[in-house]
Amino acid sequence: MCSGCDGSVGMTIRRKTNTGKAPYTPCFVAGCRIATDRGAVAVEDLRVGDRVLTRDHGYRPIRWIGAREFTEETLTDFPELRPVTIAAGALDGLLPSADLTVSPQHRMLIRAPEGGGEVLVPAISLTARDGIAVAGQGGVIYYHLMFDAHEVICSEGAWSESFLPDADALAGVHSAQLREILTIFPELARPAGLVSYGGPARHCADMAGLSAAA
């Protein structure tokens, strides 16, 4: 199943939610190129079943794709939803190989300070670095890619996460998209569903937490 894969967009939000809170939306922006077994493919051109390169398990098929549109009006109301652009080379001098734009909560794979291991950190927590900044005005379409397990996948040469169906992420998808996910992964409807799914592919943190722990 796929929401937004036929050229339509799964959801457009133009007003504040009843809670007044911005939805949690970790995902790629349209135009990001994802490494697949047939080369780099724009995220909006991917389809369920396409095989994507993962850091840990070789090529794995996409099980679900979701799309969500945020208008400029919504982003004015919720500026914390504006995407983050990582300029080419901003992560380590080499990567990404081209500018990469993701949602602010989308987690990028980096190496922890002081010789630590690999961790996943939200893009927004990297904006103190040169070449990484919140994008300017304009609406945006975000795309979720979900696999049989949480994966670390490659976009523009940089590694970042696939969709992790934890409580925050599931609360941020449209009800029709949630039904699709639960049809494919019915175990997620149970209290311990994320345990069955497998949990995060790496330790998840933010830069403030990493700095405090260093």
Q: Regarding CATH, which class? A: Mainly Beta
Strand content: 25-35%
Q: What is the distance, rounded to the nearest whole angstrom, between the alpha carbons of the first and last residues?
A: 43 Å
> What is the CATH superfamily label?
Hedgehog/Intein (Hint) domain
Q: Your description of this structure?
A:
This protein has a single domain (12-213), classed as Hedgehog/Intein (Hint) domain (Endonuclease - Pi-scei, Chain A, domain 1, Beta Complex), CATH 2.170.16.10. A four-stranded mixed β-sheet has the order 1-7-13-2. The chain is an alpha+beta fold and 214 residues long. It is built from five helices and 16 strands. 15% of the residues lie in helices and 29% in strands. The radius of gyration is 16 Å and the shape is globular. The model is unreliable at 1-20 (pLDDT under 50). The relative contact order is 0.21. The longest helix has 10 residues, at 175-184. InterPro entries: Hedgehog/Intein_dom, Hint_dom_sf, Intein_N. Pfam families: Hint_2 (PF13403). One of its GO terms (biological process) is intein-mediated protein splicing. Residues 26-166 form the Hedgehog/Intein (Hint) domain. This is Hint domain-containing protein.
